[in-house]
């Protein structure tokens, strides 16, 4: 039978980690052997053909991203880096933790194959500080790979060499932004960098660098081993592969599942998450983390893929949905998010550093009965200016405006209720 | 800074700390690239990073103390003030908020007598907010030390924290 859930095939119900022996017994490190038997150019072609898109939130085609890395003679002498982004801090996102804790070798195999394809000689896993268990498991897995000859000077006798390090971070959401991550890995404050130059050309210490999400990298060796057509056949829509989808909020069975890319939203919420908790109805949902626009009931039959959710006016983002129920105040909901983004601003540019705390303050005023009608105009102006790509140095601030602008569009009555002092939720509701 | 002076400063670090920092330096092109690793190593040994430790690390990495402090203060998990034996990281991001983390915070405050950012008088706990801990399906959650606690309620919180420390 062909493999339909490649990413979670080693994930057990009790979430016990898969060690080297169990991983190899289930076909582990065969993707690495398949890759090493081909040229890096051939591997890259398979990856391009597979239509794999980045799972970190933006959905950028991975093969295309990699094709900008200088190869062979076109690359000046020196290191080339591959970095795994395991910083997972987007509010409402809990998918990479599953992959890291349950199957660390899968990530490492994916990274070795990716590094080989890019001819990178040093790889880093940038992992958030709070993921202690995953950090330890990855370190053990790297040591086990050295013993087996999967990492080090002469990998499986091919002459290819790769060293891999785990960098445990020290907090701050902005570290997940790929150029801020590079600054942080260099030991600096995590301020994002201007693009161009793109990291592919000038990244870590000025060298060619690729940053990819955990889930993205976990797919790579499966694709090289089984081929682009197999990967494309996994998706239900134009988008290829499987996706880790998650649901949190007031549903009966919150969780994270690997499903075909393009699975309808309704099926994920009703079938996998078990529908709403008794006594709660769905009012809206953020499709993929705290920096995506709200969608509502009318969007439940849409396919969860990058293009479909994009056309509906939101983003699939990380694919982990957050449900807004009918007993939770939408104003409080977005205030929590905007206050979060204000706290996490790196402080580099003014619209974000000064604008987000202002938005959070206006929302706090509205929520706590100090709001005025004019506040809605202020919020609309903030959404327009802070939300415009290009007005800020990175995508954190525009991301912060996505839930706010869509809440104003879909739930205007929630703001009006607060302005007139009778929010049904905040007076005796859950919030 | 004279060499003798800088050696003097560095002597505030233990051999163990210096060895761990040097192991990090071995695989990067510039000494100061390990600034964050070095801060974390010292914090793992001492619980926090004092001015004295900071100056010692800076001297060892050939940086100025101010430059290193600019990095240290950027990161919320580098503690530049003493913290309790265990740090409570209470998630207050969206999925935990939906599931009532505000009430839990209030309950902890009542029980331990500390607000966010404060340390209990018996020095057992420091209470801090934290960004989504990637366990939103088990919301609300918190970490106590290195351990994650899921599906919290007011009763379980008190059990985990071991009852009242209010004088
Ligand atoms: C503020 C901000 C935070 C981000 N946090 C993460 C993160 O925690 N993990 C992640 O993989 N990508 C994160 N990203 C996206 C990265 O910048 C980058 O696009 C991604 O790691 C690329 O990987 P991919 O192509 O495999 O998706 C973040 C972006 C922004 C703007
Ligand atoms: S938008 Fe915010 S997080 Fe991004 S660079 Fe500007 S201040 Fe920093
Ligand atoms: S929101 Fe608390 S763990 Fe994700």
In short:
The complex is a heterodimer of chains A (431) and B (167). With 431 residues, chain A is an alpha/beta fold.
Describe the 3D structure:
The complex is a heterodimer of chains A (431) and B (167). Chain A has helices at 20-25, 30-36, 40-50, 62-67, 96-102, 104-118, 132-148, 178-185, 214-226, 228-234, 265-272, 306-311, 330-344, 350-353, 355-367, 374-386, 396-410, 412-419, and strands at residues 81-86, 122-127, 163-168, 209-213, 242-248, 255-260, 282-286, 320-325. Chain A has 431 residues and is α/β, with parallel strands linked by helices. Chain A has 3 domains: 20-234, Rossmann fold (3-Layer(aba) Sandwich), CATH 3.40.50.11540; 242-325, Ubiquitin-like (UB roll) (Roll); 330-429, NADH-ubiquinone oxidoreductase 51kDa subunit, iron-sulphur binding domain (de novo design (two linked rop proteins)), CATH 1.20.1440.230. In chain A, strand 5 (242-248) and strand 6 form a beta hairpin. In chain A, helix 3 packs parallel to helix 10 (228-234), helix 13 (330-344) packs antiparallel against helix 17 and helix 15 packs antiparallel against helix 16 (374-386). Chain A is globular. In chain B, 44% of the residues lie in helices and 11% in strands. Chain B has helices at 3-10, 15-25, 35-46, 51-60, 65-72, 94-98, 101-112, 154-161; strands at residues 86-91, 125-130, 142-144, 147-149. In chain B, helix 3 runs antiparallel to helix 4. The longest helix of chain B has 12 residues, at 35-46. Classes of the chains: A alpha/beta (431), B alpha+beta (167). Chains A and B meet through strand 3, strand 5, strand 8 and helix 13 of A and helix 3 and helix 6 of B. Bound molecules: flavin mononucleotide, iron/sulfur cluster and FE2/S2 (inorganic) cluster (FES). Flavin mononucleotide is lined by residues 54-58, 60, 85, 87-90, 174, 176-178, 211-213, 216, 394-396 of chain A.
């Amino acid at each position: 039978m062909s493999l339909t859930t490649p990413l979670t095939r080693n994930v057990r119900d009790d979430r016990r980690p898969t060690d080297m022996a169990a991983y190899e017994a289930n076909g582990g490190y065969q993707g690495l052997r398949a890759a090493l038997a081909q040229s890096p150019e051939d591997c890259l072609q398979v990856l391009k053909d597979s239509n794999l898109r980045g799972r970190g939130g933006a959905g950028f085609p991975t093969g295309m991203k990699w094709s900008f890395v200088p190869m062979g003679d076109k690359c000046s002498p020196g290191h080339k880096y591959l970095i795994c982004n395991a910083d997972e801090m987007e509010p409402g996102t809990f998918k990479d933790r599953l992959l890291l804790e349950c199957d660390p070798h899968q990530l490492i195999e994916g990274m070795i194959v990716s590094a080989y394809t890019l001819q990178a000689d040093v790889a880093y896993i940038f992992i958030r500080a709070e993921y202690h268990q995953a950090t330890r498991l990855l370190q053990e897995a790297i040591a086990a790979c050295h013993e087996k000859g999967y990492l080090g000077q002469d990998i499986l006798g091919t002459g290819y060499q790769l060293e891999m390090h785990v960098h445990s971070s020290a907090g701050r959401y902005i570290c997940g932004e790929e150029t801020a991550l590079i600054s942080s890995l260099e030991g600096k404050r995590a301020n994002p960098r201007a693009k161009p130059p793109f990291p592919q050309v000038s990244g870590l210490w000025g060298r060619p660098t690729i940053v990819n999400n955990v889930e993205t990298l976990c797919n790579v060796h499966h694709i090289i081993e089984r081929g682009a057509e197999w990967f494309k056949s996994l998706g239900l829509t134009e988008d290829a592969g499987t996706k880790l989808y998650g649901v949190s909020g007031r549903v009966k069975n919150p969780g994270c599942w690997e499903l075909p890319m393009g699975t309808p939203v309704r099926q994920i919420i009703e079938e996998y998450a078990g529908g709403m908790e008794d006594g709660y109805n769905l009012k809206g949902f953020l499709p993929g983390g705290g920096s995506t626009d709200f969608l509502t009931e009318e969007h439940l039959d849409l396919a969860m893929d990058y293009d479909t959710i994009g056309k509906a006016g939101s983003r699939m983002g990380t694919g982990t949905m957050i449900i807004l129920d009918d007993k939770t105040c939408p104003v409080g909901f977005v205030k929590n998010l905007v206050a979060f983004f204000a706290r996490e601003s790196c402080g580099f540019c003014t619209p974000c550093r000064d604008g987000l705390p202002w938005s959070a303050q206006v929302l706090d005023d509205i929520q706590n009965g100090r709001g005025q009608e004019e506040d809605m105009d202020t919020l609309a102006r903030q959404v327009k200016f802070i939300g415009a790509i290009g007005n800020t140095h990175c995508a954190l601030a525009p991301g912060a405006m996505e839930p706010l602008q869509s809440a104003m569009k879909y739930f205007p009555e929630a703001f009006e209720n607060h302005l007139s002092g009778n929010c049904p939720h905040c007076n005796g509701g859950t919030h | 800074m004279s060499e003798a002076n800088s050696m003097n400063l560095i002597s505030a670090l233990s051999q163990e700390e210096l060895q761990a920092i040097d192991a990090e330096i071995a695989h990067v092109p510039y000494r100061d690239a390990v600034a964050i690793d070095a801060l974390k190593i010292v914090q793992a040994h001492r619980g926090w990073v004092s001015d004295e430790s900071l100056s010692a690390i800076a001297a060892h990495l050939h940086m100025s103390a101010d430059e290193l402090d600019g990095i240290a203060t950027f990161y919320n998990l580098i503690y530049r003030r003493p913290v309790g034996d265990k740090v409570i990281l209470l998630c207050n991001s969206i999925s935990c908020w939906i599931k009532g983390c505000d009430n839990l915070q209030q309950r902890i405050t009542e029980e331990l007598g500390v607000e966010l950012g404060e340390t209990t008088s018996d020095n057992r706990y420091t209470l801090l907010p934290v960004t989504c801990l990637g366990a939103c399906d088990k919301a609300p959650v918190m970490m106590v030390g290195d351990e994650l606690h899921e599906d919290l309620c007011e009763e379980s919180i008190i059990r985990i924290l071991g009852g009242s420390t209010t004088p």
